[in-house]
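Dock zinc ion; give full complex structure.
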Amino acid sequence: MNAPDTAFAFDAAIREAAARVNPRVVAWRRDFHENPELGNREVRTAKIVADHLRAIGCDEVREKVAHTGVVGTLKGGKPGPVVALRADMDALPVTEETDVPFKSMKRTHWNGIENVGIMHACGHDAHTAILMGVAEMLAIMRDLIPGTVRFIFQPAEETPPIGEDGGARMMVEQGCLKNPDVDAIFGLHVVSNDTTGKIGYRSGPFMASADDFRVFVHGNQAHAAYPWSGVDPIVIGSQIVTGLQTIVSRKVDITQEPAIVTVGVFHGGVRHNIIPDKVKLEGTIRTFNEKHRTEIHEHVKRISEMIAAAGGGKADVHIHRWYDVTVNDPALTEWSLPTLQRFVGGDNVRTIDKVCGAEDFSFYQKEVPGFFYFIGCTPPDRDAKKVPTNHSPRFYVDEASLRLGTETLAALALDWLSSNGKR
Ligand SMILES: [Zn+2]
Ligand SMILES: [Zn+2]
């Protein structure tokens, strides 16, 4: 049997299995939505996932990987390669404002702020439920599967709490792509800026790298009426903010890729008539290639330090590298399209613009070829360009999109194993 025949033979079985698990995928997603947990705190979620993976007969279920991650392995009935599917499990410190019956009422203490809500405002509840559904579908079909499927449920995609490590980088470090070695990985994200039934993707650089920087500007405190007797870090900080604007406009070859430097925090001073001793700036850097990333880091540091020195002060610059560029392997992307098109129709699978948001799926893609795609989750009767975005307290997932998630992820895994990544 050649690859396409095998793939098509699987389609009917996939659709049937997806229909069968769908009511429970919806129920799991509602349960996770009502009981969201922040990064590295996904204890309840992880237990439900691990119990499920054991119940459906996974050969191995590892828990507490990268704190709260769960890794399941399902060996098919025939020998073959290894494919991984990934979901993220964490929620966000957002106070939910939707009126769904399973609205989150959970509250927490976050970053010094009391009584902040916790909400699955990025749809990771959907991702976790979808992958649980896919795991069950593939377990039903396991005798037919030529190879092994690895299910990766990772914590802390939205970055771990301050001072902690975690997420995809740590999952990789703790061996989630090993024993047996994974040959390719797939993942998806629900997005509200597209309609249910639509899939968006991009070959090559897809989502940005994300790094944050902090600049502490040290001046010399003085009476505000006698500025010559001190060094004013507010003026220096203001010049640094302006100076940083020249990085993307003057220093980066933006014909290659876009880039972003944004200052999001400017803290300093306590009183109108005091020049403070120091101010703090914080910002984010987004790029689509490593060269730009390295260059921008150097420019942020040099511009901040030189401007501060010119004003008689000093700047301490700290840059933290968070996520690498999410790069979809071009060959794997090409390979994936026919599978996606079979399930949603050719016109509904579309290349989209680069995304300045970031994803730690990038860390898996550094190890093995990976393909990450978006599925629309806004009901067709609403305007996907006007609805609240991911991370909004009014973010809304159309449950009909879950079915598309289970079908396409299962199909990608089965097609890939059947064909060993070839068409
Ligand atoms: Zn998010
Ligand atoms: Zn997300």
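Observed: The first helix runs from residue 3 to 34.
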